[in-house]
């Protein structure tokens, strides 16, 4: 067996990965091509699932026996933008200070990818009974959409994986469930006019306010009906409204108002059904009077609803093979719940057992001066060493 990777090897990989500017709207291919060539050098078999435009791709790389599904180590290669953030260090240059490594993506989640890559050589040199699959995706930070191509490719063409470890930053604790997400942008197209003659216009801001009040009413109902024992914090489906834009001046009836809204759903609440309720209200209550004024004034007045993202809930599963495996190797026995979305739910929808377990803290994700503690990389590296030994000794997840 090859030498046990050192924490320094993980750091070296992290430095390299952070230097690729893989903000979601940019291509991730330079990173993917580099990693793919590296893994192929050790005998990994690789497949790419590109996006439609051909400027991004997911990488699937397998080492070990090909006739069975193995353990998926899953992570996204994209990161959130740094524009408008005040960084003390250069965001795309890994910088060490007091046991911490600063850089965009260090915690979310190139730290995990770096640890996996540092262990690739040892995995390849081991007599694996259970294969490993690296699943490195794109477009996670814009709604977890990129990985779907990979998940469907695996589901349709490859042996079903036994377990999926999604290495999002959990400080190396087990997370077995997260909320789902459904979001829309609504654009109200009203009729402008002088504010002294309100009946000759259709005020887009007032229409938007009616919809937002309706959303708030649903939120209150969901709060009142929450199952407080489900382990989620807060235990109910929550409403997001973060952006609203409209109007030009206090004395002009606004012809346009747009806002973004969405729900983070707990298991048991159907995000699509909640959204349907809102869309029905818009169609039946808010849009008709708007349209009527538009017709009178010879202007097209209507309301547009654009779906933005739709992520299933990652439903806690006591019998998850992935969770059992991590418990068995770490001795941890608590399974947490979080309110942010991950790719684990897409794997679960495809029928694969998943768990979220990775180095670094979500508290540093997406912020300026994002960092990962070196000790977190060391812990993740130690876990991967154990996992590799387990894959040599075992054939199946217990
Ligand atoms: Zn992430």
Could you walk me through the main structural features you see in this protein, from its secondary elements to its overall organization?
- The chain is of the alpha/beta class and 398 residues long.
- The chain folds into two domains: 7-178 and 314-393, Aminopeptidase (3-Layer(aba) Sandwich), CATH 3.40.630.10; 180-311, Alpha-Beta Plaits (2-Layer Sandwich).
- The chain is built from ten helices and 17 strands.
- The strands form five sheets. Strands 1-2-6-3-7-16 form a six-stranded mixed β-sheet.
- Helix 1 packs across helix 3, helix 3 crosses helix 10 (374-393) and helix 6 (204-224) runs antiparallel to helix 7 (271-297).
- The chain is elongated, with a radius of gyration of 24 Å.
- The protein starts with 6 loop residues before the first helix and ends in a 5-residue tail after the last helix.
- The model has no long low-confidence stretch (mean pLDDT 96).
- The structure holds zinc ion (ZN).
Q: Which characteristics define this entry?
A:
single chain, 398 residues, alpha/beta, Aminopeptidase, Alpha-Beta Plaits, 2 domains, six-stranded mixed β-sheet, four-stranded antiparallel β-sheet, 35% helix, elongated, binds zinc ion
């Amino acid at each position: 067996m090859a030498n046990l990777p050192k924490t320094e090897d993980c750091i070296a990989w992290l430095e390299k990965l952070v230097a690729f500017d893989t903000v979601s709207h940019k291509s991730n291919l330079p990173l993917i091509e580099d990693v793919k060539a590296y893994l192929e050098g050790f005998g990994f078999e690789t497949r790419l699932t590109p996006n439609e435009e051909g400027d991004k791709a997911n990488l699937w790389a397998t080492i070990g026996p090909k006739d069975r599904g193995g353990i998926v180590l899953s992570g996204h290669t994209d990161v959130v933008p740094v524009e408008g953030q005040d960084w003390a260090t250069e965001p795309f240059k890994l910088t060490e200070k007091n046991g911490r490594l600063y850089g965009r993506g260090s915690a979310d989640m190139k730290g995990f990818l770096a640890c996996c890559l540092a262990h690739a050589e040892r995995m390849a040199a081991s007599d694996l009974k259970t294969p490993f699959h690296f699943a490195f995706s794109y477009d996670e930070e814009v709604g977890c959409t990129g990985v779907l191509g990979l998940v469907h490719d695996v589901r349709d063409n490859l042996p079903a994986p036994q377990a999926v470890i999604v290495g999002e930053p959990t400080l190396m604790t087990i997370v077995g469930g997260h909320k789902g997400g459904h979001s829309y942008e609504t654009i109200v197209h009203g009729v402008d006019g002088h504010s002294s003659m309100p009946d000759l216009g259709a005020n887009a801001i007032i229409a938007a306010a009616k919809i937002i009040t309706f959303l708030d009413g649903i939120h209150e109902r969901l709060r009142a009906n929450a199952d407080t024992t489900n382990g989620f914090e807060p235990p109910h489906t929550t409403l997001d409204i973060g952006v609203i834009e409209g109007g030009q001046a206090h004395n002009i009836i606004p012809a346009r108002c747009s806002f973004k809204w969405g729900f983070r759903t707990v298991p048991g609440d159907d995000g699509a059904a909640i959204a349907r309720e809102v869309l029905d209200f818009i169609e039946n209550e808010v849009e008709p009077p708007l349209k009527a004024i538009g017709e009178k004034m010879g202007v097209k007045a209507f309301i547009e609803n654009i779906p933005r993202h739709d992520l299933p809930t990652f439903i806690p599963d006591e019998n998850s093979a992935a969770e059992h495996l991590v418990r068995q190797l770490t001795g941890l026995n608590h399974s947490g719940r979080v309110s942010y979305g991950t790719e684990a739910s897409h794997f679960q929808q495809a029928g694969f057992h998943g768990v979220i377990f990775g180095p670094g803290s979500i508290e540093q994700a997406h912020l300026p001066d994002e960092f990962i503690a070196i000790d977190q990389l060391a812990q993740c590296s130690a876990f991967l060493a154990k996992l590799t030994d387990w894959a040599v000794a075992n054939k199946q997840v217990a």
